[in-house]
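Practice record 12: protein with N-acetyl-L-glutamyl 5-phosphate.
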Amino acid sequence: MYEEMDTLIEKASILIEALPYIQKLYGKTVVIKYGGNAMINEKLKNWVMEDITLLKYIGVNPIVVHGGGPDINSVLKKLNVESQFVNGLRVTDMQTMEVAQMVLVGKTNKELVSMLNQKGGKAIGICGIDGNLIQARKHYEYVNGEKVDLGYVGEVVSINAKVLEMLAKDEYIPVVAPIGIGEDGTSYNINADTVAAEIAKAIKAEKLMFMTDVEGLKYDKNSKEIISAISADEVLKMIEEGKIDGGMIPKVLGCIDALKHGVNRTHILDGRIPHCILLEIFTDKGIGTMIHL
Ligand code: X2W
């Protein structure tokens, strides 16, 4: 009987630990980038959806931006199409563009929306075409000083923040697929990390969180120690020294860009940890790596 009471009291104290964080975030907007690499299994996805729904119910306004690179890969594979990547960006010809849009908007987006709604969240799935949310133009990548044409890969020109604010400030959870729309109506495939950072900037989010499949940043790749907080300058130095590379670069640069444009906190989180969003936001210790100015 007493043991049971102790457990209950412990549960209450865990909830109370969250109080100052809830107060700080109440009414604020948090942008959560959910990468395809962190959508490992249904159980994990369910935990993420629970965390996001809980945030909404305690008065925080989450906006979800999702990736889905692995989903696109598996459909392309069935069609016997192989993708090439330049600096982490998928070279996107017309056929790949069609597949990317079908998969991200029709499959990945709707799965996440449906799961959130199952949890009691009121999720609305949109992509950059809806309400001209993500206005885009063709992106050229530079490799060793040379301009490379990646086809229908886009870069963000502007974000129609009003669309997201209308939904997020109301009872809805916007879930955004990273497809942009050009002035002439052309669809563009945009890296989801970049979209998340641009959205966080445009709506001046309180927080931007990248959920991926690494524990966080490390000074030494072979070390077990995760950097819990690091400045933007230190991050840039680590990139120069080659200590941060590949898919992590758009995430950390997105964090720095967002911080410089008014976002207060940015984080890189291990999406493979159960309830990683709650652990980061509502515990004293937090998890993953926080990047600050
Ligand atoms: C990405 C969009 C999806 C994405 C792609 O085609 O894979 C470009 O590379 P993850 O899961 O976050 O990697 N677009 C241009 O970013 O998904």
